[in-house]
Amino acid sequence: MRHIMHEATLLMTRFILVRHGETHWNVQGRVQGGGDLTPRGHAQMAAVAERLATEKISAIYASPTPRTQATASTIGRRLGLPVNTRNELVDLDYGRWSSATLERVRAEAPELVQMWLREPHRIRFPNGESLADLRARVMATVGEMMARHPGETVLVVTHDSPIRTVASLALGLDDSHHQQWVIDTGSV
């Protein structure tokens, strides 16, 4: 049994999750941040790239959004690795609320905001996704990465909600725990 467990441990894929650097939309308090990296966002990414320089990372995967691509490219240049783009790593689709300010959403749909904070697993955003949708697409991609990179370290550059989802799954938590995580911009 020890021998089998030891071999399985050696073949486990290790994931390092990075949230993109700060953007102008993050500063403005918009839902599903867009926009270009701020000077602070660029500084965050330079620091993250330096922090990860000693890791033995085999591959970098990133969401296709400009903010994650800029983040992943900065890290990739420092590590000498290309960035593999995966559409499944995009953030939760907030539907009609995408790009709206949090202030506007609170004013126009206070019950939605309260439910999102208290029972996020019960929300499907109008014209958007639910956390179950997000979980399905992110986990399918993580499974593919695990199959492609057994025993290796993989860097994934993505967004707040996909990172919360992967962290919850790693700990055996369901989507009702989504709001328990704080994932700052530029965080590892």
Please summarize what this structure is.
The chain is α/β, with parallel strands linked by helices and 188 residues long.
What does this structure look like?
This protein has 188 residues and is α/β, with parallel strands linked by helices. Helix content is 46%, strand content 11%. It has helices spanning 2-10, 24-28, 39-52, 66-79, 102-108, 110-118, 131-148, 160-170; strands spanning 14-19, 57-62, 83-85, 153-158. It has a four-stranded parallel β-sheet. Helix 5 (102-108) packs across helix 6 (110-118) and helix 7 (131-148) packs across helix 8 (160-170). It starts with a helix and ends in an 18-residue tail after the last helix. Residues 1-8 have low confidence and may be disordered.
Percent helix range: 40-55%
Major sheet summary line: 4 strands, parallel
Order of helices and strands: HEHHEHEHHHEH
Overall pLDDT? 92
Give the helix/strand class. Answer: alpha/beta
What's the helix count?
8
Enumerate the spans where pLDDT stays under 50 for 5 or more consecutive residues. 1-8
Radius of gyration: 17 Å
Span of the ends, CA to CA? 34 Å
The fraction of residues in strands falls at 5-15%
Principal-axis shape: globular
Strands of the widest sheet, in order across it, are 1-4-2-3
Total strand segments = 4
For this entry, give a set of tags:
188 residues, alpha/beta, four-stranded parallel sheet, 4 strands, disordered N terminus
